[in-house]
Write a structure and sequence with these properties.
The protein has 369 residues and is an alpha/beta fold. Helix content is 37%, strand content 24%. Strands 2, 3, 4, 5, 10, 14, 15, 16, 17 and 18 form a ten-stranded mixed beta sheet that branches. Strands 1, 6, 7, 8 and 9 form a five-stranded antiparallel beta sheet that branches. Strands 12-11-13 form a three-stranded antiparallel beta sheet. A hairpin with an 8-residue loop joins strand 7 and strand 8.
Amino acid sequence: MDNPLKQKIAQSIAITGPMPISQYMHLCNAHPDLGYYSTGNPVGKDGDFITAPEISQMFGELIGLWCLQAWQAMGSPDPVQIVELGPGRGTMITDVIRSIKSSREFADATQICLVETSASLQVQQRSKLSETDMRVDWVENIEQLPPIPAIFIANEFLDALPFRQFVKTNDGWQELCVGLNGEPDSSQLAFVIGSSGLEENLLPPGHENEPVGAIFEHAPAREAITILIAEHIKTNGGAALLIDYGHQKSGFGDTFQAVQSHQPVPTLANPGNSDLTSHVDFQAIGDIAIRSGVNASRIVTQQDFLLAMGLLERAGRLGHGKSALVQQNIQQDVERLVGDEQMGQLFKVLCLTRHDCPVPWFDGNTISS
């Protein structure tokens, strides 16, 4: 076996038995020596996938504009932190800072904090931000943030957090695990049904009508992060903007996927060398935020959000006076960000706020506890 992480996983399974998908995903993404985010260069044209900030500066600039509006709605606290979760190569926060500096008052009040556990990505982020004159700090988890108001931004962060899968069997809902393929001395990974079940109160309505073989995905790690964000906002003031691919309503289906060199690959084929994700259940995220004592907005598409924030107007200004080729490229970037067949409909946006903070555009469309 030429994949050292795959060998370690197979050895662990041979000794202790099948592991939940959440454990497999955590090892693949976060193993300190062999994990995907510990060793690779995942984002960008030369990586495995391209995120919206890597497509166009307009994305991060509009997120920065939203941060400004949120800060004003909060009463313009000084100081305030802009906290990015999973900042990748630092591309989005660089563009956010450009927007922040359009308001000197906001820029003077703002501290930047990046929540990043990968040492290799931290190196890239520090290089990207080396010339900024704004204060930038790094922490490994939300609990290390200072007790001041914070505006959280997270783009394609929640999808990479570990999740669990359950399959409906004749004996109820049982957890899907990663095991070995059953052959003697096999080191090939395979999906197997484990012994753990699922409490029915965690299932969406209508689960009793699902056929045998139906899949339900549950992501305690995402819920735990949401609770930490909500508690910080409730205690210190602030807001959060969560953007990811996913669904607006809880449901059923297998969304576990792996991407390598911009192409889908089998999820068990090359652990540690491909990007493992699943679709985010935004209804579950919103519900847990509400139970934690903050407001959750209606869930909208990235298309609706970016167009409402002025994407077309920003594209027009960016392309004004430029060559036909530059204008064509900007138009293509817009299509990738908001097109029906591109990111526009697949990606969803959710805003969280404290009860005393109405945020522009989302204001009047919140669901409170």
